[in-house]
Specification:
Elements: H1 6-21, H2 28-54, E1 57-60, E2 71-74, H3 76-99, H4 106-125, H5 129-147, H6 153-184, H7 189-199, H8 203-220, H9 229-235, H10 238-264, H11 271-293, H12 298-319, H13 322-353, H14 369-382, H15 389-403, H16 407-432, H17 448-463, H18 470-485, H19 490-496
Antiparallel strand pairs: 1-2
Helix pairs in contact: 1-2, 1-4, 2-3, 3-4, 3-10, 3-13, 3-17, 3-18, 4-5, 4-10, 5-6, 5-10, 6-8, 6-9, 7-19, 8-10, 9-10, 9-12, 10-12, 10-13, 11-12, 11-16, 12-13, 12-15, 12-16, 13-14, 13-15, 13-17, 13-18, 14-16, 14-17, 15-16
Length: about 500
């Protein structure tokens, strides 16, 4: 259990050292940041087997026993999310070695990046509602600064809009936590769950769940809470766009929402809540895809695509079935990999050409074969083309929808996947295929660290379907799903692990 606080301690300590020594020692910020993210990824892999062999682990901060003291909890869902977040963070820091050279304050970038990572890991491992809010704010405030990192007009405007919407979301979440505390007299998540089970149904729980749905829905950019995302994600440097769309909206939005709704409030069997999630997910799928279809800006198209794919995940959770939960978690992992890869691809194009307008590109695969090939793999995966990873997760979600007798919504999910294929084929045609324009004849492939990150992510997109193999799925996906399916039993499991 003593590895649990390392997920916060390592990035916080690294952020402090980078801010202190980053300017004074050449390459220190690159080396330490990559070492920190690699260590976190390795420990997160170890955590999967620890949870598998020993069950839920609880770390008592300061030795105080919960619910009196603060606790950090690691179950199957925790280890699943930690692997997802820290894998992407490690590959993004490798990519940043070369990409961030064109910015003047690399040490400040890594400091903010590591603080954001500490906040995300903290949200995942905390067993306390108020600390969930604190870690959420650490990650969010760091991300506001990172969106504005280039300090151009567009970036500052996007960051301001993102900060305003983020503060509104945080207000809803804080109010929900305050009302929950006033009703249960505790902030420990397992203790809240136990208290609510003892007291039975109460109208305040439905109101609190609505506040959380609005707050975390804003963080996840669910329609109609999505307006900040298409400005914020394209404006940020490519490594940050990859982190924001790849993992941040999933941790601060989706993970926090489903953890609180299903494990803390125990609403996994309430049909009205599940129905709301299903409808919001479906609307997000459709609206995000249709808005992406008309985009000419490469990164803006990817941002609208994120809204659509988040819709798939929320829709699958809304089905409320074990297969739906499995599909949602699998698609969450897959989307983290292929969307991060696509944003890194767009960053490579901008790095080489200085251009984001798809209509001004063309034939770039001839000069940038690695970027072109990895972009094609990611595009096919997100569109659900077999045998890429996205096909398998979308297939599970559609089968789960058919089993739940949601035939119309299953058809909509298939239709949206076809629309997704249409706009990613447009990206491939306009950016990478066709005749090379004269002004791009001097373009060169990006440096090795950037290529390495893109190639590793493309291999994961190719081999992602292997996660469904019995032995691997049981350890990685099914333990995460079972943690959510435990519902109100979460409290008994946590207190039983003390």
């Amino acid at each position: 259990m003593h590895i649990i606080p390392l997920f916060v301690a390592i990035p916080l300590g690294s952020a402090f050292l980078v801010s202190l020594l980053g300017k004074r020692v050449k390459r220190f910020s690159d080396s330490l940041s990559n070492l920190a993210t690699f260590s976190l990824f390795f420990i997160s892999l170890v955590s999967i087997f620890l949870v598998r062999n020993q069950g839920i682990l609880v770390y008592k901060v300061g030795g105080w026993i919960p619910p009196i003291g603060i606790s950090m909890v690691m179950d199957g869902l925790t280890s699943f999310m930690l692997v997802t977040v820290n894998l992407i963070a490690f590959l993004v820091t490798i990519y940043s070695i070369s990409y961030m050279e064109k910015y003047t304050a690399k040490d400040k970038f890594y400091t903010l990046f590591l603080l954001m990572l500490a906040g995300m890991n903290g949200v995942i491992i905390t067993g306390d509602m108020f600390n969930l809010f604190v870690f959420l704010e650490i990650a969010a405030i760091s991300s506001y600064a990172l969106v504005a990192f280039g300090t151009e007009h567009e970036e500052l405007e996007a960051s301001f809009k993102y900060a305003v919407m983020g503060c509104l979301a945080s207000s809803f979440i804080l109010l929900g936590i305050a009302l929950l505390y006033s009703f249960t007299s505790t902030l420990n998540m397992a203790d809240i769950s136990r208290t609510l089970t003892e007291r039975g149904d109460n109208k305040i729980i439905f109101f609190v769940s609505t506040l959380f749905l609005m707050g975390f829905g804003l963080k996840a950019a669910l329609v109609p809470f999505h307006w900040w995302l298409p400005d914020a994600h394209p404006s940020a440097p490519a490594p940050i766009s990859a982190m924001l769309s790849g993992v941040l909206i999933k941790v601060l939005g989706i993970y926090a929402l489903v953890r609180v709704l299903f494990n803390v409030l125990g609403l996994g069997e309430m049909k009205s809540i599940l129905y709301i999630l299903m409808i919001l997910g479906t609307i997000s799928m459709v609206v995000g895809a249709l808005l992406a279809l008309g985009q000419k800006d490469f990164k803006r198209l990817l941002a609208y695509s994120s809204i659509s794919q988040i819709g798939y995940i929320i829709f699958a959770f809304g089905l409320g079935t074990p297969l739906g939960f499995l599909g949602a978690l699998f698609h969450l992992f897959n989307h983290s990999t292929f969307k991060s890869l696509l944003f890194l691809n767009s960053g490579a194009v901008v790095y080489a050409t200085g251009n984001r307008d798809l209509e001004k590109m063309g034939g770039l695969s001839q000069k940038m074969p690695v970027t072109g090939t990895t972009s094609l793999i990611a595009s096919m995966s997100i569109s659900g083309i077999p045998p890429f990873s996205g096909f398998w997760s979308k297939l599970i979600i559609i089968i789960a929808a058919l089993q739940a007798r949601q035939f119309v919504l299953a058809f909509i999910a298939i239709l949206v996947s076809i629309i997704t294929l249409a706009y990613y084929l447009k990206v491939q045609k306009l950016a990478f295929f066709g005749k090379l324009r004269k002004k791009w004849e001097g373009v060169k492939e990006v440096p090795f660290p950037m290529k390495l990150s893109m190639v590793i992510l493309s291999i994961i997109c190719l081999a992602g379907g292997l996660l469904l193999l019995p032995g691997i799925s049981e350890v990685f996906l099914e333990t995460a799903r079972d943690a959510l399916l435990a519902g109100k039993e979460y409290a008994a499991l946590v207190f039983g692990a003390l």
